[in-house]
Amino acid sequence: MRRRLIPRGLGTRLVAGFLLVSALSALTTAALTYRQARSAILERVQDNAVHELRARVDSLAPDLPARPTEADLRALTRQLDRSAGAHEWRTAAVFREGGPVTAGAAAPALPAELPAAASAARTALAQRFHHEGEPWLALALPVSSAGDSFEPSGLVVYASFSLASEQQDIASLVTAARAGALPVVLAAAVPALLVARRVLRPVRRLRAAAEDMAGGALDTRIRVTGEDELADLGRTFNAMARTLQADAELRREMEAKARRFAADVSHELRTPLAAMTAVTGLLDEDAASGRLPAETAEALGLVAGETRKLVRMVEDLMEISRFDAGAARLDPEEVEVGELLRRTLALRHWQDRVQVETPEGGLRARLDPRRVDVVLANLVGNALRHGGPGARVRVRAEAGGEGAGLRIVVADDGPGIPPEVLPHVFDRFTRGAAARAHGEGSGLGLAIAAENARLHGGTLTAANSPRGGAVFTLTLPRQAVTSPGERAT
């Protein structure tokens, strides 16, 4: 598997989430601070400008005649321009709506909608706008007649000035906010790592405990502290572990009792079955000599056949019991594999029905011939029994590669193993449909064959050939094979 460039564990996600929240918090705070600071700066500039313009106008307006001329207005705007101070505004004045606009040295930049709004206004108006790519502030100040109450005199004074310096101050706030957000996020990494480590510590303990249980340590428990969800998960895990341990102990106890029962029953049946076999053997001889009536001879043959099946079943049960008890042992010796195959077939009179293939020059191996004989007898017997009438069975022995020392393949050209049976073919008491129909076999033969293969340190596998038929492969380790003519030590 390719290693991921970016880890995607829970710890990484916790740290990333913590940093994301920190970054969003820092950016949100910076945005709100910037917005408030920007509004405060602009409002302060606007209020100061209105206050300063009103003060200048109030000091100069009393000297104007009731109906000022254009020359009077020009003189007024020039005086206002000279007293602009830090704002460096440009001013203009208009008397009566629709009258000519009189400016000072330079006409101020005004938004189009401001004069119309100022004609009906009773207080100062301010409007921000953009002029030649820069932010500007425009003011409109209606001048009142002398007296306590506000009475419009018809004179309106306009002023506008650039907000470029204020814009630079606001831009510096943005830069400071951006520069301050990064250290906040970096500083948040330390508590994020600490929090992630603290949160994931019980998760790691839980994972380690689960791995121990998967390895067979059902007495594994974890230490639980706290009252949060992870603590509840730990308590649930411990309860599950106790239940599994109790179930496993109960199952082992029941399996041990079942194995003892099978071994005891097999042992107890062995003696009476030996006597029954001896008696039925004698009666078989009488039946074969013709001294018994035909019906009696037929019944006797049926009893003798079932007795032999029962004997084989008891022997299989005793063999399985030895495997379960760990009492089965190997008696290895060096043999010629081809000779072992032919002897197995000859003992059961199968030599004319089975084709044997061995390497030229022979193939020697160190193994337990009795147990390999049991394996081969089961495999070849199944192939002949389930392959159908006239079935052709092939047995091929070869020296394998890639860690396999000896490979013996038993194949037939029958219907093969049903797909639903194939995964369980080596389970105990598993029998094919044909065996169930005829009552043949105990369902333990292949299980015993697989146990004998494992006892040698090898494997036994089953499959269906693409050309049809079943294929069983016995694989023994490399140490089991010696070269032709070489003697194993």
UniProtKB/TrEMBL annotation:
InterPro entries: HAMP_dom, HATPase_C_sf, HATPase_dom, His_kinase_dom, HisK_dim/P_dom, HisK_dim/P_sf, Sig_transdc_His_kin-like_C, TCS_sensor_his_kinase. One of its GO terms (molecular function) is phosphorelay sensor kinase activity. Keywords: Kinase, Membrane, Phosphoprotein, Transferase, Transmembrane, Transmembrane helix, Two-component regulatory system. It catalyses: ATP + protein L-histidine = ADP + protein N-phospho-L-histidine. It comes from the Bacteria. CDD domains: HAMP, HATPase, HisKA. Residues 197-249 form the HAMP domain. Its EC number is 2.7.13.3. This is histidine kinase. The lineage of its organism: Bacteria, Bacillati, Actinomycetota, Actinomycetes, Kitasatosporales.
